[in-house]
Amino acid sequence: MNNCSARLASLDGLLQTLIPAHLDPAPSRETLRDWFDQARIPRFKANPTARRGGGTVFYSVSAVEKFLQSRTLPCRLPPVVLPTLGNDKAANPAAN
Questions:
Q1: In angstroms, what is the C-alpha Rg of the chain?
Q2: Where are the strands (E) in 23-82, listed by range?
Q3: Which listed site, 44, 76, 77, 87, has its alpha carbon 20 to 30 Å from 69?
Q4: Prediction pTM value
Q5: Residue 70: pLDDT over 70
């Protein structure tokens, strides 16, 4: 992903840049549109006076990013080491 600081992006733009960074495989456009509507992510039309078919709809990139971060697990978590019964005796010799 290139180093850009876009404020608004179309659904196609999000599918090419931001969505693959969080979800693989990327959901369909209809699923994303439903998720964004349910999360009340701000969207803007290219021609706000048009009632129907007003052109491309743009979504707030920062709101989409926050939504994805809150709904997905980070993929770079450090491994968790769970103690076993054998390790407890070695760590605490006074327990014997």
A1: 22
A2: 43-45, 57-60
A3: 44
A4: 0.62
A5: yes
| Tokens coding 73 | 């697990």
43 bridge partner residues: 59
> 17: closest CA among 63, 65, 55, 57?
65
For residue 3 the two structure tokens come to: 């180093």
- Kindly state the average pLDDT of the residues 18-41: 89
Tokens 């803007």 -> residue: 44
Phi-psi region of 55 (alpha: psi -120 to 50; beta: other; left: phi over 0): left
Residue 57's identity, in one-letter code, is V
The mean pLDDT of 16-33, rounded to a whole number, is 88
- Cross-strand partners of 41: none
Nearest to 60 by CA among 4, 12, 14: 14
Contacts of the segment 21-29: beta carbons below 8 A, 24+ positions apart: 22/68, 22/69, 22/72, 23/68, 23/72
